[in-house]
Amino acid sequence: MEFKRVNLLAGHYGSGKTNIAVNMALEMRRRFERVAVADLDIVNPYFRTKDSAAELESAGIRMISSEYANSNVDVPAMAPENYAIVDDRSLHAVVDVGGDDRGALALGRYSPALREENDYEMYFVANFYRPLTRTPAQALEVMREIETAGGLAFTAIIDNSNLGAETTPEDIAAAFPLARELARLSGLPLAAVSVRKDLADAAAAVVAADEVEVFPIDLYYKREWAVWNT
């Protein structure tokens, strides 16, 4: 994938955006000297980029998150260092925006500066196997809610439709037409299909005719599947 200076990931809970954020940051670190991951999820205390702080820091990636991350304090708060994302233009960043419209509220503090610099990509991460985003129309509704809350429009879509470790090539093929329809409805490009690394070849065959890129990833987050499936 090609990266802008700031790369934002947002989507409904269970979309897998946090997992993609970790993989994206690790890939960016191979290309750029200074890389940071900012965890803006000040609402959901369960699945955070901060959970992979050790992996990120060992790769030389700066970790920026709320001081309340991984605590039981549900207070919207942002550390002053969070503003390095927009203040330090020598820094390449991945921003893990909170799930749904309520979680996207923190993004509004960055929106004016991001629009002014105009060197960002804002990806909607779609998982058509999650509740509330099983159809393109439902996913589009979530997109619009996040845009309104965060004050920033999406620029591209990543199809991350999966069932975690149980995902098969057939699952990827079944969801891909839904991702194409979401792209049509929203008028946004389908930037990539994100899949486990062992499914990359199968995904490439599915998307070949559409010339969509495959973004192979490692799985870092599995707990949310246990929660969603209970």
Description:
- The chain is α/β, with parallel strands linked by helices and 230 residues long.
- Helix content is 35%, strand content 18%.
- It contains nine helices and eight strands.
- Strand 6 (156-159), helix 7 and strand 7 form a beta-alpha-beta unit.
- It is globular and about 45 Å long.
Task: Give the SSE layout.
Blueprint: E1 6-10, H1 17-29, E2 35-39, H2 53-58, E3 62-65, H3 84-87, E4 92-96, H4 100-103, H5 111-117, E5 120-126, H6 136-150, E6 156-159, H7 169-186, E7 190-196, H8 200-207, E8 213-217, H9 223-228
Parallel strand pairs: 1-4, 1-5, 2-3, 2-4, 5-6, 6-7, 7-8
Helix pairs in contact: 6-7, 7-8
Count of the domains: 1
Query: What is the number of helical segments per DSSP (H or I, 4+ residues)?
Result: 9
Fraction of residues in helix: 25-40%
Instruction: Briefly note the structural class of the backbone.
Output: alpha/beta
Gyration radius, to the nearest Å?
Answer: 16 Å
By CATH reckoning, the class would read Alpha Beta
The profile of the biggest β sheet is: 8 strands, parallel
Outline type: globular
Number of strands: 8
Nearest-integer average pLDDT: 86
User: Which segments are poorly predicted (pLDDT under 50) over 5 or more consecutive residues?
Assistant: 68-75, 222-230
Distance between the termini: 35 Å
